[in-house]
Write a structure and sequence with these properties.
This protein is an all-beta fold and 197 residues long. Helices cover 0% and strands 36% of the residues. It folds into 2 domains: 15-56, RNA polymerase II/Efflux pump adaptor protein, barrel-sandwich hybrid domain (OB fold (Dihydrolipoamide Acetyltransferase, E2P), Beta Barrel), CATH 2.40.50; 68-176, Nucleic acid-binding proteins (OB fold (Dihydrolipoamide Acetyltransferase, E2P), Beta Barrel).
């Protein structure tokens, strides 16, 4: 028997296939030998293990290795920056539980980093790549497209603007240095050719 033609979008309760041919995966359930969608999303058939799963259309974001994430720097220690992860690069929803991630000093930028206080400040919003998701979240901002995307003046707390070589406060004129993300014109972190970092 040939594989079923799956629709592009399914609703909870939509029939996906027979349990004698496929295994019910994430986002599905089995009832009387038939597999149904349990949520709104996109169905996928995995030919390797003969399973059907549904990826949620607007599901709760989960942090996975190699994901891009937006995070707020909460604390700077000698060897690491401690951050709260706000969202993933692929979702507009916040990550539940406000998980903590760390950027080790060796992963802040390419080359030698003398002090993290020269690369980040408390309150900065960074875009980072997940190196490890479990048991703790480890991040890197070393590649050029990654780094600080929003920062406030350490003197008057106004939002800093990017100057020719450093950040400039439009209110008090104070200048500061950060490891800035190289954001292409589209507004999303990535290489200048438009490909992801």
């Amino acid at each position: 028997m040939s594989d079923p033609e799956l629709p592009k979008l399914v609703l909870p309760g939509d029939y996906l296939g027979a349990a004698e041919e496929f295994l019910p995966g994430r986002g599905t359930y089995e009832n009387r030998g038939r597999i149904y969608a349990s949520l709104l999303g996109t169905p996928h058939l995995d030919a390797r293990d003969r399973s059907i799963r549904v990826e949620a259309r607007n599901g709760i974001p989960e942090i996975q290795e190699d994901d891009l994430v937006y995070a707020r720097v909460d604390e700077l220690k000698t060897a690491m920056a401690i951050c709260t992860i706000l969202s993933t690069g692929t979702s507009t929803r916040t990550v539940p539980g406000a998980p903590e991630g760390t950027v080790h000093i060796s992963k802040a930028k390419d080359g030698y980093t003398e002090s993290l206080s020269g690369e980040f400040a408390v309150g900065d919003i960074i875009v980072a790549r997940v190196l490890q998701a479990h048991p703790s979240v480890k991040l890197t901002t070393a590649p050029a497209p990654l780094g600080v995307v929003a920062a406030r003046c350490q003197v008057c707390h106004a939002l800093l603007r990017i100057g020719p070589k450093e950040l400039v406060c439009p209110r008090c004129g104070h200048t500061e240095h950060r490891k800035l993300a190289q954001v292409p014109r589209s507004g999303a972190p990535g290489r200048n050719d438009g490909s992801p970092p």
